[in-house]
Amino acid sequence: MSEVVIYTDGAAFGNPGPGGYAAILISGNAQKEITGGFAHTTNNRMELLAVIMGLEALKRDGCTVSIYTDSTYVANAVEQNWLFDWERKNFNKKKNPDLWRRFLLSYRKHKVKMIWVKGHAGNLMNERCDRLAVAAAKASNLPADEQYLASIQQNSLFE
Predict the structure, then answer these.
(1) Ramachandran region of residue 56, left (φ > 0), alpha (ψ -120 to 50) or beta?
(2) Residue 79: which residues within 8 A CB-CB, separation 6 or more?
(3) Candidates 20, 37, 40, 47; catalytic one
(4) Most buried among 4, 7, 64, 156, using CB within 10 Å?
């Protein structure tokens, strides 16, 4: 079984606003950085998408994965088992169901441990992820976060 460490971070300027995500995967001596962003999204979506992109980058199933995140939203949802209650209730009245469903597809292929780290506290890999996510959020010509925009439209029809 392969052991992988993934550091993740998300950023958004405005909430919603332009946002970016970053994941750094480390396995043995190998390291890979993944970044991207959207023109109109939220910080929580970018935090979660960073984790998803890290997990989706794994080429083999069954890895032991330690994910370091400064997002209590993501870490607590998994480690406190809130996510699985949300899933049983079909994510009723929960934000980001599209991403949580996508997360679960990759999460269930591996043995994953979420580890919360304090952001901006000197953790070198967390700081690197932050710089990458911020740079991604500031990139020009960012695509739309279509799922987020669709959820806004759907919710506004009923308010």
Answers:
(1) alpha
(2) 114, 116
(3) 47
(4) 7
pLDDT at 155: 61
Examine the residue annotation and report whether 10 is marked as an active-site residue of this protein: yes
Q: Are 49 and 10 in contact (CB under 8 A)?
A: yes
Q: Is 3 a catalytic residue?
A: no
Q: Which string of b and e fits 50-60 if b means at least 16 CB within 10 Å?
A: bbbbbbeebee
Low-confidence ranges of the chain (pLDDT < 50): 157-159
Instruction: Give catalytic status of residue 47 as yes or no.
Output: yes
Tell me, what's the pLDDT at 159?
Answer: 42
> Computed over its alpha carbons, how large is the radius of gyration of the chain?
15
For 89-107, letters b (16+ CB in 10 Å) and e give eeeeeebbbbbbebbeebb
Identify the pLDDT of residue 1.
57
